[in-house]
Write a structure and sequence with these properties.
Shape: globular
Order of helices and strands: EHEHEE
């Protein structure tokens, strides 16, 4: 999926990534691991329980470069151009 999405591990290390509809953070944690500790991966979801579980799993895996937030993807609070990569796999109907 990273290749299909145009993400190159050698070029995108240190990228700021937004994972829209992150669930409990499987993709967020994968990207954080693959892109390395200089990357910053933020996952947003509507579920506080998913945020809590995603943060727990990231901590268990030693990923300090993740952040999970409760936020509506249709009403995001981030300034324009806050991210280098926006990932939104499985977040739409």
């Amino acid at each position: 999926m990273m290749k299909f999405g145009g993400i190159d591990v050698s070029e995108d290390r240190g990228a700021k990534v937004l994972d829209v509809g992150c669930g409990f953070g499987g993709t967020s944690r994968y990207l954080a691991n693959k892109l390395g500790p200089k990357a910053e991966v933020t996952g947003i979801t509507l579920s506080p329980n998913q945020v809590k579980r995603g943060a727990e799993l990231a901590k268990e895996q030693g990923l300090s470069n993740t952040n999970f937030m409760v936020m509506n993807a249709l009403e995001m609070e981030f300034p324009d151009n806050s991210f280098d990569i926006v990932w939104a796999c499985e977040s739409g109907e």
